[in-house]
Amino acid sequence: MKTLAAVVYEMELPAPYAESRPIKIEELELEVPKEGEILVELTSAGLCHSDLSVLNGSRPRPMPMVLGHEAAGVVRELGPNVRDLKIDDHVIFTFCPTCGHCVPCATGRPVLCDCGQEANAQGTLLSGERRFTNKDGKKMNHHCGVSCFSQFTVAARESVVKVDPALPMDKASLFGCAVITGAGAVFNRAAVEPGSSVAVFGLGGVGLSAVMAAKAAGATKIIAVDMLEHKFDLARKCGATHALNPADENFLEEIRDLTGGGPQCAIEAVGSEVAQISAYNAICRGGTMVTVGLAHPEKNFSVPAVSLVALEKAVLGCYMGSIVPSVDIPKYVEMYRAGLLPVDLLFSGFITLEEINASFDALARGDVIRQIIQFS
Ligand SMILES: [Zn+2]
Ligand SMILES: [Zn+2]
Predict the structure, then answer these.
(1) What is the CA angle 368-372-374, rounded to 5?
(2) What's the CA-to-centroid distance between 160 and ligand 2, angstroms?
(3) Which pTM was predicted?
(4) Ligand 1 centroid vs 343 CA: distance in angstroms?
(5) Would you give the end-to-end CA distance of the chain in angstroms?
(6) 5 in helix, strand or coil?
(7) Per residue of the chain (376 residues), what is the pLDDT tens digit?
(8) 29 within 8 A of 358, measured Cβ to Cβ
(9) What distance in angstroms lies between residue 66's CA and the mean position of ligand 1's atoms?
(10) 10, 38, 83, 134 — which has fewest CB within 10 A?
């Protein structure tokens, strides 16, 4: 079948993308779903910083690629042996398919799935195959098994979680990356306790989701940290009790004063080693820094080695919120419905597929949180 899709042929074209236009909107041929796969008609897809990281080359991926990894849609066709989904089911995509059999999957850490990570690195579905072809007969790579910047996509059954159709689909897409990454870091990795203090570095979709989750977890001091102070009002609406600019001369002193020696937990959602170091320095003795942002692969995180021991500081990485998708995504959706995760606050407006290049410029500048492509 034919589908209109957003394709990247080359990374590291110069910004602004409205001029260099790294993303081409093209009609592609999409094969029918094979064994264990499904065809999904996309309803909504969010623009995330990890897509930008592909465009600017800080998260290198095989080219050419149909971009996009945060989305929701409706199942339109089932490949052979997909028995637990039906046509017209509503689904949210997850950006690491999980085989269910490897050691990480079998030990309850499916986001580290050996097979899913390998497929994502190669730009294939879990099957090792590719389903999009351009007009020259060239196979397109899949982005994290999702490739949702397309009217239709084919994905492994293991790349989606079924959701209640009553959930509005534009909101549903946000649970595919921003919400699970930020909230999962707070609940699963940091295990934030009621009455504790949490600092969140980086107030994009992931960081603001972490702020909401910190409030839901009962943290009583929630410090929103960003160099763009125009984001502070929104952070307060999401649950922040204070907001600080890390570029301020007195930043460390202020955050320590606010929290009696530093927050017990810091979530780093910027994706830079500078923010990681700032977050590490901010946490209290015995505190934990959880980093969820994707830093450039050539950058190193460097802190005084002795501080790990003498101050008993902990540094934890967290991929995709360390979630179990089929358990945690429905849980976070229920928390949204109960008013505990006000995900609507992340929404910055709808865009069309054709507006995608300029919309990534807006995201890179920090003008917006989550722009959502609405397909129909
Ligand atoms: Zn993302
Ligand atoms: Zn696995």
Answers:
(1) 150
(2) 14
(3) 0.96
(4) 15
(5) 17
(6) strand
(7) 999 999 999 999 999 999 999 999 999 999 999 999 999 999 999 999 999 999 999 889 999 999 999 999 999 999 999 999 999 999 999 999 999 999 999 999 999 999 999 999 999 999 999 999 999 999 999 999 999 999 999 999 999 999 999 999 988 999 999 999 999 999 999 999 999 999 999 999 999 999 999 999 999 999 999 999 999 999 999 999 999 999 999 999 999 999 999 999 999 999 999 999 999 999 999 999 999 998 988 999 999 999 999 999 999 999 999 999 999 999 999 999 999 999 999 999 999 999 999 999 999 999 999 999 999 7
(8) no
(9) 15
(10) 83
What is the CA(310)–ligand 1 centre distance, in A?
A: 35
In angstroms, how far is CA 24 from the centroid of its own chain?
A: 23
Q: Which amino acid is at 298?
A: E
- CATH architecture for the domain at 179-320: 3-Layer(aba) Sandwich (3.40)
The two three-digit tokens of residue 2, written as one number:
């034919």
Find the ligand nearest to 106 CA. Answer: 2
Give the CATH architecture of domain 2-176+342-374.
Alpha-Beta Complex (3.90)
Residue ranges matching CATH 3.90.180.10 in the chain:
2-176+342-374
